[in-house]
Write a structure and sequence with these properties.
The structure holds two protein chains of two kinds. Chain A is an all-alpha fold. Chain A folds into two domains: about 110 residues, Rna Polymerase Sigma Factor, Chain: A (Orthogonal Bundle), CATH 1.10.1740.10; about 70 residues, Winged helix-like DNA-binding domain superfamily/Winged helix DNA-binding domain (Arc Repressor Mutant, subunit A). Chain A has nine helices and no strands. Chain A is globular and about 50 Å long. Chain B folds into two domains: about 50 residues, no CATH class; about 140 residues, no CATH class. A four-stranded antiparallel beta sheet of chain B has the order 1-2-3-6, with helices on one face. A four-stranded antiparallel beta sheet of chain B has the order 5-4-7-8, with no helix packed on it. The N terminus of chain B is likely disordered. The chains are: A mainly alpha, B alpha+beta. At the A-B interface, helix 2, helix 3, helix 4, helix 6 and helix 7 of A face helix 1, helix 3, helix 4 and helix 6 of B.
Chain lengths: ~190, ~230
């Protein structure tokens, strides 16, 4: 049951806010892979990610009326919510200690046992991801540590061994360049 | 907080904020500032569109069970019944209704969630919301219905406390005399979305029932709120 490609996510969110369960289902069908992929990327643990993805959509159902289209796109609202929820989970003390070990081993190894589907998705994603890769290592690294590892900008500076100001600059310039590249593509 | 971060440097934090890469104090500062600065709100919206690009290519379908569980939970939440409290002299009798005890028994178990505002708000804020009121020992008892939403809400009321083992249960009294459960009122001090569609009902009644509720009322109603119109 795949949704029509041109569904307006903002409309679906508005209908969801009005209690429309069908709109909610369509919203989930249109965005579930996007949200879950992000959550998996952050948490690395499929069981935890499944829980968080479910929590995210329950929160969407309950708080859809707080979406304000003048403050950004529906997709951005949804991913912001998902990211926040996943990062909250990461920052909880216990998860953090697990992750520190995982981070160390990640330098040498890929994420544990990715499913075939995951591999396929990631391969499909290579072309798109080059936008991030084109930023060059310093910016890409700062952005990915902040966004996917759930580090604060202060922790990013510590992890990279650079002054706080440098970390902030890399994050800000990285995002601006990414925005410009995406703008150029659209 | 780091000493070299002064009040004036919120714009410095916008990009980290867009990535959730700030601590709680910084987040609060940025959010305070955003309330009053349209320029930064636009800049943030812009940065967040770039952030969307960061997860491009990471799409991964969630396990199939997630969709099913979500839709079940959402359907249940849409019907959640919230609570009430207490009893005194029954004045109103099930009367005509007794003849029509067809026992539909729309009877279920309600899960009570942390956040039930949605179902209640949808009814109360509906364009066609209508308030219906009755009194129980001088305490107003209010039901709000919305035909558009096919739902009714029992507003919070200071109902008399019930002895242990007894609960208030709400009922739809249908035009044809059938009585359908509208759910056990778990906490009368909060607004509660009633279970079921109020359409075709002449009244919402409350009765005192054993804990867990009954399929059909086992006592006379303590109050009935007529649904005119």
């Amino acid at each position: 049951m795949s949704p029509p490609p041109d569904l307006d996510l903002g409309e679906l969110l508005r209908a969801t806010a009005g209690g429309d369960q069908q709109a909610f289902a369509l919203l989930y069908d249109s965005t579930g892979a996007r949200v879950h992929g992000l959550v998996v990327r952050i948490l690395r643990d499929h069981a935890q990610a499944e829980e968080v993805t479910q929590e995210v959509y329950l929160q969407v159902w309950r708080t859809a009326s707080s979406f304000d289209p003048t403050r950004g796109s529906a997709r951005s609202w949804l991913l912001t919510l998902a990211h926040r929820r996943a990062v909250d989970r990461v920052r909880s003390a216990q998860a953090q200690s697990d992750r520190d070990q995982a981070y160390e081993s990640r330098h040498d190894r890929p994420a544990p046992d990715p499913t075939a589907e995951e591999v396929e998705h990631r391969m499909q994603g290579q072309a798109v991801r080059s936008a991030v890769q084109e930023l060059g290592p310093p910016h890409q690294e700062a952005l990915e540590l902040a966004y996917f590892e759930g580090l604060t900008h202060r922790e990013v500076s510590e992890r990279l061994g650079v002054p706080l100001g440098t970390a902030k600059t890399r994050i800000r310039d990285g995002l601006r360049r990414l925005r410009d590249q995406m703008g150029g593509r659209a | 907080m780091n000493g070299n971060e002064t009040e004036g440097h919120v714009d410095d934090l916008l990009a980290p904020y867009a990535l959730d890469a700030v601590d709680d104090a910084e987040r609060a500062r940025v959010e305070d500032h955003l309330e009053t600065c349209a320029h930064c709100r636009r800049e943030l919206a812009d940065l967040r569109e770039a952030v969307v690009g960061l997860s491009d290519g990471h799409e991964l379908a969630p396990p199939p069970g997630v969709r099913e569980r979500l839709l079940e939970q959402v359907a249940a939440e849409a019907d959640v019944v919230r609570p009430l409290r207490r009893r005194r002299g029954p004045q109103w009798v099930w009367g005509v209704a007794a003849a029509g005890l067809v026992a539909v028994g729309a009877w279920g178990v309600w899960q009570v969630f942390d956040e039930q505002l949605t179902a209640v708000d949808q009814v109360v804020q509906a364009q066609d919301a209508v308030r219906h009121e009755a009194e129980l020992d001088g305490v107003p008892v209010v039901v709000v219905t919305s035909a558009e939403q096919d739902r009714a809400v029992l507003e919070a009321a200071d109902l008399p406390d019930l002895p242990a083992g007894q609960v208030y249960q709400a009922w739809f009294v249908r035009e044809d005399g059938v009585i359908d459960s509208a759910g056990v009122v778990a906490d009368p001090a909060s607004d509660a979305a009633l279970e079921g569609d109020p359409e075709g009902s002449t009244a919402v009644a409350l009765s005192v029932e054993p804990e867990g509720g009954s399929e059909q009322p086992t006592s006379e109603p303590v109050v009935a709120i007529p649904l005119e119109g």
